[in-house]
Amino acid sequence: MIKIHGGSLFDYVFVIDQKMNGKQRVNFIIQQYLEGLLNLIEENENNKTENIKIRGTSYIINDRTAQRIGFTVIKTDYIQKVILLYNYFNVLLTYSIAKGKLLFPKLSQTKTFEAELHELVARKDFIRNLNEKLKNTITNKIRN
């Protein structure tokens, strides 16, 4: 199993362009998730590794987007909830940076998504197209 996440507080502070608004930042985070998934898919295609389960917990990605990519929503396990609660201050900061304003994330609305790698491979073209669309949207909005 590979567990994915949206990055550390360091990433959010130093990688996300502070000129972006909240929507652009969320799009950038999702685009980076997609970029990572595409790299994982290509690595799997080249190495023909056995199937791997991919799991991530997020308060950024919504159910619809996750399902379109190939993930299903599963129940967030108790340990993950405890970890999020323990790290609430970091979650608060990263969520606020992502949204472009101070917001308190509702941990009860955090979702866990899961997919088999072969399901993502089957959605590779969709993931690639969505990735490019988000890249173009982000680039065009920053220029304007």
Record the SSE blueprint:
Elements: E1 2-4, H1 9-14, H2 22-47, E2 53-58, H3 63-69, E3 72-74, H4 78-86, H5 88-99, E4 111-116, H6 117-122, H7 124-143
Parallel strand pairs: 1-2
Antiparallel strand pairs: 2-4, 3-4
The share of residues in extended strands comes to 5-15%
DSSP summary: helix tally: 7
> Whole-number radius of gyration?
15 Å
Quaternary structure state of the chains depicted: single chain
Runs in which pLDDT lies below 50 for 5 or more consecutive residues are none
Number of strands: 4
Spatial order of strands in the largest sheet = 1-2-4-3
Give the N-terminus to C-terminus distance in angstroms: 41 Å
Principal-axis shape:
globular
SS-based structural class? alpha+beta
| Biggest sheet statistics | 4 strands, mixed
Order of helices and strands: EHHEHEHHEHH
Q: What is the mean pLDDT? A: 87
Domain module tally: 1
